[in-house]
Amino acid sequence: MASCGSNGVESPNTLQSICYNRGSLQLLDQRKLPLETIFLDIKDSTDGWNAIRDMVVRGAPAIAIAAALSLAVEVSNLGSFNGSPGDAASLLQSKLEYLVSSRPTAVNLSDAATKLKEVISKAAATSSEARSVFQAYIEAAEIMLEDDVASNKAIGSYGAKFMQQQMEKQKLSVLTHCNTGSESRLERMRNYREKGVTLKGLDHVSFNLATAGYGTALGVIRALHSGGVLERAYCTETRPFNQGARLTAYELVHDKIPATLIADSAAAALMRDGRVDAVVVGADRVASNGDTANKIGTYSVALCAKFHNVPFYVAAPLTSIDLSLSSGEEIVIEERSPKELLNTRGGLGEQVAASGISVWNPAFDVTPAGLIHGIITEKGVITKMSSADAFDIKAFIQKTG
């Protein structure tokens, strides 16, 4: 265990989950929130793989960043390397493949690995020293941090404006599922960029819970709140790992956003009572037709929203979209440990279920595109014809560049 910074306890007015400076990475153990704030040292890609697999860090955008940085830290602290640039490239690419295996459903992780492999290949082809390949990788991983912050802000802005236009109400109440934040003090990152300071020049950089920046679905809620049009945010507990109760509720309280926590099973009753104007969730992977894999229970919420005529939106960066998949039927769904259901606190606490009971514990489910009103991205909101059951995401990407 290690502290984030120097005092071992997270400052009460920040929500840091990724603390990075070149050669050093610490991850907030999100399994312990909101009762404890503990940071873990991540020294190499093996530590990164374990942290992602064990849910120390979670949220598709954040795990991609954490994976990339864990390898950046490893090569930053690498001693002498006697191989060629090609050998360096092979080493990096094999470790990226290993990191991708930690959470196979999250497309951001594989997408980041693919982009980083391209950087590695180009560097190997033009470099005379292995160290130059490692340096190119480190810089590319750090650039991903800045890009994620910018895309989160854009998602929040586009989503808030679109929802206001569609519903034409002065105040909106929004339900979200799982955790897709956070903003914290990443406003400082924008200020650094405006001053021309690069990540290489930063002494210490902090990033946050499910993304590296403002948040996706939670970013939309933040944008609605900052615009003065959010009546109330509702968040589900999100069993069995309780990301909503432990993380989303934590962030909403921290940001002083009017919010109410509900049981997963209360979503339908909440909509029946007319308390929700819209639902917005994140995504771990979106197929080219708009079918969306997200935290288990999302499909149930979408079905309830459809029945009660509540618009259902997905907020996700374009890196969460996998155009190689024609539909959600092709999405690989990760299954988690039975302990997450058998024990309290997502498997970390005492056993409460009967010994000997079999367990089915998928981490995600797939919401069909027909249940989704719009997909909010950093380039705008992807919509479909009212009679269509699928989105034409390829056309949107071609149009927006």
Automatic annotation (TrEMBL):
<dbReference type="GO" id="GO:0046523">
    <property type="term" value="F:S-methyl-5-thioribose-1-phosphate isomerase activity"/>
</dbReference>
<keyword id="KW-0413">Isomerase</keyword>
<dbReference type="InterPro" id="IPR037171">
    <property type="entry name" value="NagB/RpiA_transferase-like"/>
</dbReference>
<keyword id="KW-0486">Methionine biosynthesis</keyword>
<dbReference type="InterPro" id="IPR011559">
    <property type="entry name" value="Initiation_fac_2B_a/b/d"/>
</dbReference>
<comment type="similarity">
    <text>Belongs to the eIF-2B alpha/beta/delta subunits family. MtnA subfamily.</text>
</comment>
<feature type="site" description="Transition state stabilizer">
    <location>
        <position position="178"/>
    </location>
</feature>
<dbReference type="Pfam" id="PF01008">
    <property type="entry name" value="IF-2B"/>
</dbReference>
<dbReference type="GO" id="GO:0019509">
    <property type="term" value="P:L-methionine salvage from methylthioadenosine"/>
</dbReference>
<protein>
    <recommendedName>
        <fullName>Methylthioribose-1-phosphate isomerase</fullName>
        <ecNumber>5.3.1.23</ecNumber>
    </recommendedName>
</protein>
<feature type="active site" description="Proton donor">
    <location>
        <position position="284"/>
    </location>
</feature>
<keyword id="KW-0028">Amino-acid biosynthesis</keyword>
<dbReference type="InterPro" id="IPR042529">
    <property type="entry name" value="IF_2B-like_C"/>
</dbReference>
<dbReference type="InterPro" id="IPR000649">
    <property type="entry name" value="IF-2B-related"/>
</dbReference>
<dbReference type="InterPro" id="IPR005251">
    <property type="entry name" value="IF-M1Pi"/>
</dbReference>
<dbReference type="GO" id="GO:0005634">
    <property type="term" value="C:nucleus"/>
</dbReference>
<keyword id="KW-0539">Nucleus</keyword>
<keyword id="KW-0963">Cytoplasm</keyword>
<comment type="function">
    <text>Catalyzes the interconversion of methylthioribose-1-phosphate (MTR-1-P) into methylthioribulose-1-phosphate (MTRu-1-P).</text>
</comment>
<dbReference type="GO" id="GO:0005737">
    <property type="term" value="C:cytoplasm"/>
</dbReference>
<comment type="pathway">
    <text>Amino-acid biosynthesis; L-methionine biosynthesis via salvage pathway; L-methionine from S-methyl-5-thio-alpha-D-ribose 1-phosphate: step 1/6.</text>
</comment>
<dbReference type="InterPro" id="IPR027363">
    <property type="entry name" value="M1Pi_N"/>
</dbReference>
